[in-house]
Amino acid sequence: MKHSTSAKMRSSQRPTQTLDWRVSQLENYRPLRPLDGSTAIVKTQNGILYPGTVADGDLDPNSDALIGSFGITIDGGGQVIAPATTNYITIPYDGTITGWYLMADQVGSISIDIRKCIYGNFPPIAGDSICGGNYPALVMDSKNQNGNPAGWIKAITAGDIVAFVVNSASVVQKINLVVKVAKL
Hints:
By secondary structure, this protein is mainly β. It has two domains: 2-59, no CATH class; 67-183, Jelly Rolls, CATH 2.60.120. It contains no helices and twelve strands. The protein has strands at residues 2-5, 19-22, 30-32, 40-45, 48-51, 67-75, 86-90, 95-117, 137-146, 155-156, 161-170, 174-183. Strands 6, 7, 8, 9, 10, 11 and 12 form a seven-stranded antiparallel beta sheet that branches. β4 (40-45) and β5 form a beta hairpin. It is globular and about 35 Å long. 21% of the residues are buried.
């Protein structure tokens, strides 16, 4: 479903943006991120969708519209994940880390360091850890989360290179680690 609103001037208000967006599921008056990267407010009234417009600065910074994530899936190919397994990604936006989720294919244990550096310093080394010793981990479990990781360096910048390094693992053969971010 595609909707569009036109930009218009309202007296004593800032100009609004032209928005193109698609909706799959929504709650009453929930902020969403349109496909074009701008922000819209979608209103429902008796099950009918009405596009809304938002002027600059009118967004709640804690809304889902500004939440992003990055992460990694590590697959041991039918074997226990090996320590020192390392994978890299590049961060596409500025933000602040707000938490993490870790899930495994079965009950077991794993500890993963997250390191970051700028492109010119690739690859990130142990001293580039953002975890402050408080690593995302499972201890004889298949899932874990932390909504406010203590001791972490939480600022991320577009272009940062992030390394996920397995410190240790037992039993688990496949994991998914998602780091939640409030986009700036």
